[in-house]
Specification:
Radius of gyration: 25 Å
Strand content: 15-25%
Number of helices: 13
Distance between the termini: 43 Å
Bound molecules: ligand C2E, calcium ion
Largest sheet: 8 strands, mixed, barrel
Number of strands: 13
Order of helices and strands: HEEEHEHEEHHEHHEHHEHEHHEHEE
Oligomer: single chain
Structural class: alpha/beta
Length: about 325
């Protein structure tokens, strides 16, 4: 802590001197030892800043110093605001997850031929987060992944969703990131949890993204082959959104592809998009792969997609993701 009477410049000079002391090489009998250090600091602003906020901001600045090898960094509200928000989410997430406050929502996927629900997609939600707007999965999933918490989150939301799914004939689609797929004992743990709820692997769909095909392909394919051997179904999510070539259909062992909703957004207006979708459906069918389309937001798109021979549909027009409200006795904590 430094008194404001020091002024910004003198604070900076003091910290630079401290950094120099810390990083001065140490000479010993074993040789020279170089020590790295990163310092983040913040000036308490006019807006009231509590002690924890001050530490938090300094910590964010320190992390920027570390990543960018800057040595000493002062917190900058403009540059560091995104990191500050994400670090606030990180702090809250570390508490919310073990407390069971990350909840399961389910969104229906229907069969185009008869309109019946064939599958339910498991999506994470964080109601009552305490933030002005509850963080969306796109805000907290990457953080959970960085913290290595995605599996814990999956086991927890799964144990909420499985009792609901067990009482239906539908499949349960779960989103699996590449890091989860190759985490130790992933398939064994998943198998144990679904067995506890008497849901066979044939009713579980693993939704993976094209990322799986970009790195460690051999290792990832081996896990996917093993998953299919155990009876799980493998679905390629967000197909047509990224950089994947058609070769991905050959490279990965797949049961189903899900055409990305960005694709669908342009469908009504663009004849070319319609042609691409038609050709993709036909290609998938030739390869024996089921074709699903997500992001269906109106009757018109649904009719178009149906006319192209797609097998399954998902989207707000068909059904919104809804929080699972299982009786408390069914909400067993994940182990
Ligand atoms: P996703 O796998 O592509 O999931 C579908 C997303 O589209 C969901 O967003 C869903 O709410 C949204 N959606 C569904 N129908 C429509 C529609 O008609 N129009 C539009 N505009 N959107 C629609 P959400 O729940 O915000 O999830 C975003 C992404 O976060 C998911 O994309 C998925 O990749 C990831 N995610 C969500 N929950 C989990 C989870 O529990 N684990 C993991 N690993 N990832 C998750
Ligand atoms: Ca998905
Ligand atoms: Ca998707």
């Amino acid at each position: 802590l430094m008194s404001p009477s020091h002024g910004r410049e003198s604070a900076d000079l003091n910290l630079q001197a401290l950094h120099e002391c810390l990083t001065a090489p140490i000479y010993s009998e074993a040789g020279q030892v170089s020590v790295g250090a990163s310092i983040g600091w913040v000036v308490r602003g006019t807006a009231i800043m509590g002690v924890s906020e001050i530490f938090h901001a300094a910590d964010v600045a320190m992390r920027r110093a570390k990543v960018e090898h800057l040595g000493v960094v002062e917190f900058d509200p403009v540059v560091d605001s995104a990191a500050l928000a994400s670090s606030a989410i990180e702090l809250a997430l570390r508490q919310a997850l073990p407390a069971g406050r990350i909840r399961a929502a389910l969104q229906p996927i229907i069969s185009v031929s008869d309109g019946k629900i064939v599958s339910l997609e498991l999506l994470a939600r964080w109601p009552g987060s305490g933030f002005p707007r509850d963080p969306a999965p796109n805000d907290f999933i990457p953080i959970a992944e960085r913290l290595g918490l995605l599996n814990d989150m999956l086991w927890s939301t799964l144990s909420e969703a499985l009792p609901v799914v067990a009482g239906t004939n539908s499949c349960l689609a779960i989103n699996v990131s590449p890091s989860q797929l190759t985490s130790r004992l992933f398939l064994a743990k998943l198998s144990a949890i679904i067995a506890r709820h008497h849901v066979p692997p044939q009713r579980i769909e693993l939704e993976i993204t094209e990322q799986v095909a970009f790195r460690n392909v051999t290792e990832n394919c081996a896990v996917l082959d093993e998953a299919r051997r155990l009876g799980f179904r493998v679905v390629l999510d967000d197909f047509g959104s990224g950089y994947s070539s058609l070769a991905i259909l050959d490279r990965l062992p797949l049961d189903k592809i899900k055409l990305d909703r960005a694709f669908v957004a342009e469908l009504k207006e663009r004849a070319v998009t319609q042609k691409i979708m038609q050709a993709t459906v036909s290609l998938a069918h030739d390869l024996g792969i089921v074709c699903s389309v997500e992001g269906i937001e109106c009757a018109e798109t649904a009719a178009l997609v149906a006319s192209f021979g797609c097998d399954q549909m998902q989207g707000y027009w068909i059904g919104m993701p809804e929080l699972v409200t299982a009786p408390a006795c069914l909400l067993e904590r994940a182990s």
